[in-house]
Amino acid sequence: MRILGVASASAALTLGIAGNALACNIRDFSAAASCDGDGKGIITVTDTDASAKEATVTVYLESNGADERQVGEKKLTGSAKGSTVTFSEDWAPGAEYRVHITVPKLVDADVTPITTAPSDACTTKSESPSPSESPEPSETPSGSETPSDSATPSDSESSAAPATPGDNQPSAAAGESNLAETGADSNTPMIAGIAGALVVVGGGAVFFGMRRRGAAKAN
């Protein structure tokens, strides 16, 4: 009987130890702040509970040792290989987060140590332009056309012979027209003579007319 009692106690102790090893506890949980493939901040919580208990994961942003706001709350079922759940969070470098785990009747505690964001912020793809997004040279404006061949002197214009000095002298016809415009034409003396004769004739007619009128009054 003594031998049977010792064996039963040993078996119970062994089963108790094994049960405690398989039981879900806070050491099965871990958390980290990182960036996803799109360069956005995330908080990742991992559960390695082999008993596959469902846990409630709640993440809080800390400020001066107190909860500033709740980031989110999700369910997570553990596995021996490790199960994960992520929370989208645009964390600032060095920000601190408290991750609380709740498993009914087994766990009600915070993941330790407290989760701290990296010192470098995430960089989104839009902030690092690809080579294809580099500015391309602007096209030549349609209004500013390059000088065409028509702007250059043509062969006929460039090959024209220079004017000779004799070309600048006035022609005879030009001289005559200038004299006509200034009144120095050869007909001017004749016209002046005719005008003078008419004046003389007119004056004589007036003189003779006055003498005849005086003679008539004397008779």
How would you describe the overall organization of this protein?
By secondary structure, the chain is of the alpha+beta class. The chain has a domain at 22-116: Immunoglobulin-like. It is built from four helices and eight strands; from the N terminus they run αββββββββααα. A hairpin with a 3-residue loop joins strand 6 and strand 7.
Topology, please?
Elements: H1 2-22, E1 29-35, E2 41-47, E3 54-63, E4 66-77, E5 83-88, E6 96-103, E7 107-110, E8 115-116, H2 155-158, H3 172-182, H4 188-218
Antiparallel strand pairs: 1-2, 2-5, 3-4, 3-6, 6-7, 6-8
User: Under CATH, the topology of the domain at 22-116 is which?
Assistant: Immunoglobulin-like
Q: Mean pLDDT, rounded to whole units?
A: 76
Q: What is the top-level CATH class of the domain at 22-116? A: Mainly Beta
Beta content: 25-35%
Order of helices and strands: HEEEEEEEEHHH
Outline the low-pLDDT stretches.
Answer: 11-20
What is the second-level CATH architecture of the domain at 22-116?
A: Sandwich
Q: How many strands?
A: 8
Q: Between the first and last Cα atoms, what is the distance in angstroms?
A: 213 Å
Helix share, percent = 25-40%
Shape: rod-shaped
Please compute the radius of gyration using only Cα atoms: 61 Å
Structural class: alpha+beta
Oligomer: single chain
Number of helices: 4
Primary descriptors:
219 residues, alpha+beta, Immunoglobulin-like, five-stranded antiparallel β-sheet, three-stranded antiparallel β-sheet, 4 helices
